[in-house]
Every structure is written in C-alpha cells, then in structure tokens.
Design goal:
single chain; flat; four-stranded antiparallel β-sheet; 9 helices
C-alpha cells in the first residue's frame, strides 16, 4: 500500500495549478491539427492552380506547398493558443490598467523628485476619491470588472459547457442606475433557457439582489444581455423642486374642509318622466249574415279601379 501524500492547498498533489482545463486543452489540440491540415491543403491547392497558369505544374505544386504550409502553421498557432487568448481577454482590462499604472509611476519617479512624486500620486488618487461624483463612477466601473469575473466563475461551476468545454464569451460590461449590464455570447451547446433557471445562483455569485437575462439581438439567439440589479431606484426618496418655489413668508389661508358624501339619498333625486306615444286600436271585424267573416280585399276605398281596366 502506498503512503498517502499530503495535498497542497492549491492544485493537485504535485503542486501544479490548473489554468486551462484538460478537456479544453485536448479540444484545442484536435482543432489545431484540423486547422493546419485544411489550411495547408486548401491554400496550397489554390496557390498551385493559380501558379500553374504561368509556370510548370510541378513547380506550381512546390510553390503551393511553400505557401500553404506556413499559412497552415499560422492557423495551427492561432487555434492552439485560443484558450490562452480567451484567458487574456478575461483579464485584458486589469492588465491594461496595471500596465498603465506601473508605467505612470516609473516615469513619474524617474523625472520628478520624491516629494513631487508623492504629491502627484496623492492628488491623482485622493481627488477622485474625495469627490462624490467621481467616487461613485469609479465604484460602478469596479463592480463591472468584478461582475465579469463572477459570471465566468458561474459558467465554470454550474453551467454545462459544450463537448469541447468552451464556456460562453463575456464581451463587455457597463454600469447602470441599478447595477451592471453585461453582454455575453453563447457557444454552441447552450441556450438562454439553460440560464434562466439559474438566475438566483448568478445573483448570489455576483453579490447582487436579482439577475435578469434577455436577448440582445433579435436575429442572433446566442447574443444575450445580463442585468445585475443591486438596488431599487423607484422607491428612493428624491428632492422636489417645488419646495424652493413656496415663499415661507406667505400667510396661510384657512380652507373649508370638503364635504365628502357617504350615502345617496334617493328621494332627492328627480326621476325623469317618460311619456309613451298613444297607440291606435285596430277596427273590430264585422260578421256577415251567415256568420262568416268578410273576405279580405286587396284594394282599399281610396284605390282607383279605373286604372286597372
């Protein structure tokens, strides 16, 4: 029986930290080989066909191979390092801000005395932090950076990826009056219905109150928009400008209290009188001598029979 080895706090027992999943690593290797073969064959064949019109066909084949193989190698490199490029995209804003801050500090320290350097840094950091407008803007954009990473953690933890292990691509985030809005592009194997049942978990992971999701494009179901809500602005108390219009020295006027009726007194209501038009009674039929009713005639006394002859 082998002795159990002590597990280190990060990664596996050998001390390695997994940055790219093994499933993603294998998938990128397979896709890179396919990209190399397809690019080399297609580009080489097309180049040979074009070159065969002006040079010997055998030389055209060598020229096509000389063009297709390097381009296939370039396609292999791009597909192979795509997981690393995606990881750099997730941290691109932080990398740019950190590089800019370090460059600014180094240039400032090399060209100014220490006292001036500390004074400039204090002004650059202290003034935005002291002003409420800039402080709220900085906090809002900081939450946007945090939400992008929290969504990535959600996708990696409890959202099923496709067979190659590719997670949704988080594009951009910006602050809103109630929180943050993030645009996400889904990879094949996921749909908006798969995410709607996990919005409560996404809200917990983003340290927010609620999370909403909807399509960001009518023609593309993979382009989604997340709305992370941290506060409710409709029930907030706001100042009214009408208070400044009222003059405090204006005398108050006693207004009579309005009488609100509580019941309806029916005798006090004048009912309208409706008069119906009088109806004429039809003449009673007369009986003949034998007791039978007279036959109905088609003519009346007013008819002129002379016109019928």
């Amino acid at each position: 029986m082998s002795k159990p080895t002590a597990r280190r706090p990060f990664g596996k027992s050998n001390g390695t930290i997994t940055v790219i999943e093994a499933k993603v690593h294998r998938s990128s290797a397979r896709n890179a080989r396919l990209a190399f073969i397809l690019t080399a064959v297609i580009v080489g064949f097309l180049s040979a066909v074009v070159a065969a019109a002006s040079i010997h066909p055998i030389l055209a084949l060598f020229l096509g191979a000389a063009i297709g193989v390097p381009l296939g190698g370039l396609a292999w490199i791009l597909v192979r390092i795509w997981p690393v490029l995606r990881l750099l995209w997730w941290w691109s804003i932080e990398i740019v801000l950190t590089t800019a801050a370090i460059t600014f500090w180094v240039q400032l320290a090399n060209h100014t005395p220490t006292v001036v350097t500390l004074l400039v840094v204090a002004l650059v950091v202290g003034v935005p932090a002291a002003l409420p407008v800039t402080r709220r803007a900085l906090v809002a954009w900081t939450w946007c950076l945090v939400v992008r990473h929290r969504l990535r953690v959600c996708f990696a933890q409890f959202i099923i990826a496709n067979q190659s292990g590719s997670l949704p691509l988080i594009l951009w985030a910006r602050p809103t009056p109630v929180g943050e809005r993030v645009w996400v592009y889904l990879r094949p194997g996921l749909s908006m219905a798969d995410l709607e049942g996990r919005l409560d978990r996404i809200a917990v992971a983003c340290h927010a109150a609620t999370a909403l999701i909807e399509r960001a494009s009518d023609g593309n179901a993979a382009y989604l928009r997340f709305d992370i809500k941290r506060r409710e602005v409709l029930n907030a108390q706001v100042g009214s400008p009408l208070v400044d219009v009222i003059t405090p020295d204006a005398p108050s006027v006693d207004r009579p209290a309005p009488v609100i009726p509580t019941a309806l007194d029916l005798p006090d209501v004048d009912a309208p009188t409706i008069t119906l038009p009088a109806q004429k009674k039809p003449p009673a039929p007369t009986n003949t001598a034998n007791g039978s009713k007279p036959a109905a005639t088609s003519s009346t006394p007013e008819d002129d029979v002379s016109d019928w002859i």
